[in-house]
Amino acid sequence: MQVLYFAWVRERIGLPKETVETTAVTVMDLVEELRQREERYALAFSDLSALRVALDQELSDFEASLEGVREVAFFPPMTGG
Amino acid sequence: MQVLYFAWVRERIGLPKETVETTAVTVMDLVEELRQREERYALAFSDLSALRVALDQELSDFEASLEGVREVAFFPPMTGG
Amino acid sequence: MRILVQSEPFDVGAETARFGKGHQNVGALVTFTGIVRNNDAGTMTAMQIEHYPGMTEKALTAIATEAQTRWELQDVLVIHRHGDLVPGEMIMMVATAARHRKAAFEAADFLMDYLKSRAPFWKREITSEGAEWVAAKDDDEEALKRW
Amino acid sequence: MRILVQSEPFDVGAETARFGKGHQNVGALVTFTGIVRNNDAGTMTAMQIEHYPGMTEKALTAIATEAQTRWELQDVLVIHRHGDLVPGEMIMMVATAARHRKAAFEAADFLMDYLKSRAPFWKREITSEGAEWVAAKDDDEEALKRW
């Protein structure tokens, strides 16, 4: 599974994307796995209310299933316009 | 006093402007004088709710005084934009 | 502030580019352009726009000044044509420049409402059946109460 | 519909002129252009805009399509830049073409609200003191409830 990070999430984790081997069922499961990895992940995912998630380039939420998903992206609330 | 007519008021009366010698005190007095003149004036001024008036190029109303006024214009509600 | 009353066509692209340049502290530009639409039957050959020279410029300036009083605007543009136009031609445009989006949008909407009922223009549609003055809508007068 | 995501500057005049041409039955064009404003202290040297290639185009197309579902629009244009911009540069524009004024204004306002909170762009201000990500405002999320 491709996992992408944008804006300060990318900066905290220190990379824009990585391939993650996971059996996580939901986004929340994936977040828990990442948090266990290293301090920088725990820090980036410390406050989920400050984060958004997209599954295969569609906005989604942390309770969503990862079944069939190939690309997960984490980022702060968007500030376009 | 210069009296100007626009749009269908101009068409009904048959001219765009004329000089009127009058002692009318209010716009309404002037309208009454004009109505007396000829059928085409009576027709143009038959329904005042369909007319607007400007005094010296500022929108006004039929009760307004003509004191010091040099230019009176009659026209239907505006349809710009 | 730039107010133009003219019979000649205007270049909406050039006007927008010009308006967008050189403002300090502007974050938002809104433009509105009005285009002559054909009637439903598609029989309109021209739209004639009569105006009141002298009063028109004063009225447009007053409306633009009122917008600047109500909203914090860095600039306002109003262009309105008169004379004979054909369907598809641009009849008028307004533009507003402000620090923030809301002011630019609201002021442009306000300008349009006032322009419609307070600037001395009268439209006449020329169709294959004849000529007819466009009637003001009650809605247009109602719209002013929004502000 | 025309959706552009690019790092290069765009020509607001040319885009407006292009958008205004050749529509049938259009009476109203509204454009909104966003410009990079300096911060209050005037210390911003650049605004960096990060985006999510692939998702950005999909999100903008979805937002424009939603606008066309909600209002009767003849056309929609959305341009959004990414990369490094300096104060005074144009960052994005939207344009709407409709028969009537109300639809064109509302749809442009709607596009802006959705663009702000639903398109994957992130702004970072570079000042003489350092770099800071622009925080989303609660207002921006609230604004979506208007529609």
Helix fraction of chain A, binned, reads 25-40%
Tally the structural domains of chain C.
1
Number of domains of chain A: 1
* Named CATH topology of chain A: Ubiquitin-like (UB roll)
List the total number of helices of chain C: 4
Radius of gyration of chain A: 12 Å
Give the biggest beta sheet of chain A.
5 strands, mixed
Strand composition percent of chain C: 35-45%
Distance between the termini of chain A: 30 Å
Radius of gyration of chain C: 16 Å
The tally of beta strands of chain A, per DSSP, is 5
**Cα shape of chain C:** globular
Structural class of chain C: alpha+beta
Instruction: Quote the distance from N terminus to C terminus of chain C.
Output: 21 Å
At CATH level 2, the architecture of chain A is: Roll
Order of helices and strands of chain A: EHEHHEEE
Main sheet overview of chain C? 4 strands, mixed
Layout of secondary structure:
The complex is a heterotetramer, with 2 copies of chain A (81 residues) and 2 copies of chain C (147 residues).
Chain A: E1 2-5, H1 7-13, E2 17-19, H2 27-37, H3 39-44, E3 52-55, E4 58-60, E5 71-75
Parallel strand pairs in A: 1-5
Antiparallel strand pairs in A: 1-2, 3-4, 3-5
Chain C: E1 2-6, H1 12-20, E2 28-35, E3 44-51, H2 55-70, E4 73-81, E5 83-85, E6 90-98, H3 101-118, E7 121-127, E8 130-133, H4 138-143
Parallel strand pairs in C: 1-4
Antiparallel strand pairs in C: 2-6, 3-5, 3-7, 4-6, 7-8
Overview of this protein structure:
The complex is a heterotetramer, with two copies of chain A (81 residues) and two copies of chain C (147 residues). In chain A, 30% of the residues lie in helices and 23% in strands. With 81 residues, chain A is α+β, with helices and mostly antiparallel strands. Chain A has one domain (2-75): Beta-grasp domain (Ubiquitin-like (UB roll), Roll). In chain A, a hairpin with a 2-residue loop joins strand 3 (52-55) and strand 4. Chain A starts with a strand and ends in a 6-residue tail after the last strand. The mean pLDDT of chain A is 97. By secondary structure, chain C is an alpha+beta fold. Chain C has one domain (2-146): Aldehyde Oxidoreductase, domain 3, CATH 3.90.1170. In chain C, 33% of the residues lie in helices and 36% in strands. Chain C has four helices and eight strands; from the N terminus they run E-H-E-E-H-E-E-E-H-E-E-H. In chain C, the strands form two sheets. In chain C, strands 1-4-6-2 form a four-stranded mixed β-sheet, sandwiched between helices. In chain C, helix 2 packs antiparallel against helix 3. Chain C is globular, with a radius of gyration of 16 Å. The two termini of chain C are 21 Å apart. The mean pLDDT of chain C is 95.
